[in-house]
TrEMBL record:
<protein>
    <recommendedName>
        <fullName>cysteine desulfurase</fullName>
        <ecNumber>2.8.1.7</ecNumber>
    </recommendedName>
</protein>
<dbReference type="GO" id="GO:0046872">
    <property type="term" value="F:metal ion binding"/>
</dbReference>
<dbReference type="InterPro" id="IPR020578">
    <property type="entry name" value="Aminotrans_V_PyrdxlP_BS"/>
</dbReference>
<dbReference type="GO" id="GO:0051536">
    <property type="term" value="F:iron-sulfur cluster binding"/>
</dbReference>
<keyword id="KW-0408">Iron</keyword>
<keyword id="KW-0663">Pyridoxal phosphate</keyword>
<keyword id="KW-0411">Iron-sulfur</keyword>
<dbReference type="InterPro" id="IPR015422">
    <property type="entry name" value="PyrdxlP-dep_Trfase_small"/>
</dbReference>
<keyword id="KW-0479">Metal-binding</keyword>
<feature type="domain" description="Aminotransferase class V">
    <location>
        <begin position="4"/>
        <end position="364"/>
    </location>
</feature>
<dbReference type="GO" id="GO:0031071">
    <property type="term" value="F:cysteine desulfurase activity"/>
</dbReference>
<comment type="similarity">
    <text>Belongs to the class-V pyridoxal-phosphate-dependent aminotransferase family. NifS/IscS subfamily.</text>
</comment>
<dbReference type="InterPro" id="IPR000192">
    <property type="entry name" value="Aminotrans_V_dom"/>
</dbReference>
<keyword id="KW-0808">Transferase</keyword>
<dbReference type="InterPro" id="IPR015421">
    <property type="entry name" value="PyrdxlP-dep_Trfase_major"/>
</dbReference>
<dbReference type="InterPro" id="IPR016454">
    <property type="entry name" value="Cysteine_dSase"/>
</dbReference>
<dbReference type="Pfam" id="PF00266">
    <property type="entry name" value="Aminotran_5"/>
</dbReference>
Length: 379
């Protein structure tokens, strides 16, 4: 049976070139980068080179990169670390209703510890406005956390405009760029953000590694205590092979960024054309111009669980939204925020997401199979 993976927003396959380059690092360069002997120094050299490479991909200084175990830890360190380190300046946080759970649950934790959080609502396209942020800013606001691009519907927020708004305010500005990194052109100096989260496994790098960009001078309270790694901001021996693999995946991703963006946009058009050919009923959740690899569709009279099972039996991997809620009967919090709890879209929407290893033939085949399944389950 032909198998087609359309769930790259959940995780992406490790690029063969990255795997090949990581192997000798894992076998030969096993030293602890904090050790002063030759084995440690070699590991430190690889770590430092990888840090410089990754910093360069977003226009940051190497000292502004904090390596983490992934996007969740980066988001937690940004949100909780900022709040705890700056509680003397206030106790108010502004975020949105459609953030990744790594941000939302961090905010809930802080609410249980005396902080106040404003969750901004979004419109039917999954967007907020800078005016909403401005309306809720107070002298007690210490953090604004707005994701760059949404993982479920692909909506891209006005990050530059919000940063400009916050320029004369003491609040620290964080953006979760996990889905955007590698596809959107990101320069932290042009964006004006103070903190930015990234994860390797979304760009064909290894799982278990990510980073938090923290602008020089930003105060964070560590979430891990132990050694003095990462300039005392994140204790624990660094995952040298994983970080090296991350840097190699990042270079590959950025070198092919424009090509992939064009390719993924064409995949959306191809699927739409085939669905129209089959006279399918569907609507796009979010805007077609959002993140190029995320395509969330509402199919009336279908049900998520039945649809996903039928797709899987046909060899097509897709998702109902965030992978972090896989297996849960809870509706997508993103679609609830966009359309309300009573909307049929909550139980009848599927996310397709594109990435490495796909070609137009795969997309055309998958679209025809999806159309057949939709017709069968709605007959």
């Amino acid at each position: 049976m032909r198998r087609i993976y359309l769930d790259h927003a959940a995780t992406s396959p490790l690029h063969p070139e990255v795997a090949e380059k990581m192997m000798p690092i894992m076998i030969e360069n096993f030293g602890n980068p904090s050790s002063i002997h030759s084995f440690g120094r070699e590991a430190r050299r690889i770590l430092d080179e990888s840090r410089r490479t990754l910093a360069g991909t977003i226009g940051a200084k190497p000292t502004e990169i904090i390596f983490t175990s992934g996007g969740t830890e980066a988001d937690n360190l940004a949100v909780i670390g900022t709040a705890l380190a700056n509680k003397h300046a206030g106790n108010h946080i502004i975020t949105t209703q459609i953030e990744h759970h790594a941000v939302l649950h961090a905010c809930k934790f802080l609410e249980g510890n005396g902080y106040k959080v404003t969750y901004l609502p979004v419109n039917e396209h999954g967007l907020i406005t800078p005016e909403q942020v401005k309306k809720h800013l107070t002298d007690q606001t210490i953090l604004v956390s707005i994701m760059y691009g949404n993982n479920e519907v692909g909506s891209i927020q006005p990050i530059r405009e919000i940063a400009e708004l916050l320029k004369d305010h003491h609040a620290i500005f964080h953006t979760d760029a996990v889905q955007a990194y590698g596809l959107e052109k990101i320069n932290v100096n042009e964006l004006g953000v103070d903190l930015l989260s990234v994860s390797a496994h979304k760009i064909n790098g290894p799982k278990g590694v990510g980073f938090l960009f923290a602008k020089s001078g930003i105060k964070l309270q560590p979430s891990l205590y132990g050694g003095e790694q990462e300039l005392k901001r994140r204790a624990g021996t660094e995952n040298v092979a994983g970080i090296y693999g991350f840097s190699q995946a990042a270079e590959l991703a950025l070198n092919t960024r424009e090509q992939k963006t064009k390719q993924y946009k064409s995949y959306k058009k191809n699927m739409i054309a085939i669905f129209d050919e089959h006279n399918l009923q569907y609507e796009i959740n979010g805007l077609l111009e959002g993140l190029p690899h995320v395509f969330n569709l509402y199919f009336p009279k279908t049900h998520i669980e039945s649809l996903l099972v039928n797709l899987d039996l046909a060899g097509i991997a897709a998702s109902s939204g965030s992978a972090c809620t896989a297996g849960s009967v809870d509706p997508s919090h993103v679609l609830v925020a966009m359309f309300g709890k009573e909307s049929d879209r909550i139980i009848s929407s599927i996310r397709f997401s594109f990435g490495y290893g796909l070609n137009s033939g795969d997309i055309q085949y998958a679209a025809h199979e999806i159309a057949k399944i939709i017709k069968r389950v709605t007959a």
